[in-house]
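Appendix B. Raw example, untouched.
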Amino acid sequence: MLPGNVAGSTISPVRGEIWHARLEPTEGAEQGKARPVVVLSVARVGRPSIRLCVPLMGFQPSHAGKLWYRPIAPSSGNNLDKLSTADVMQARTLDVLRFEYRIGVLESIEVEVLAAMLALCVGHTGSPSGAAPTST
């Protein structure tokens, strides 16, 4: 694990990593508290200090079969301590100042599945008109 983040630190979460992050303050039904998040954004897109993330929460049987929930089993690579659920509908951007420490890394296939789920949740059907697809 990396030490907690402080102003001026050089923490730089990358796609596929799982980090413990502070999600407060929130509004309404947004996921709150400090919790693990999966970084989905790629380095060459967006502002240098912002990451697109999907929060994780403890798995519940009611999550099964929902398009926006993806179970994530603990492994030696991701270092999660329990069966978790990635809640793609709660995807949000976070400044790196919210990241506290690195927990682990998801397998690349899981990262691709989460990205595809996010695309489905926002109605993505292909490349935007006039834009060429890019690789990650």
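End of appendix B.
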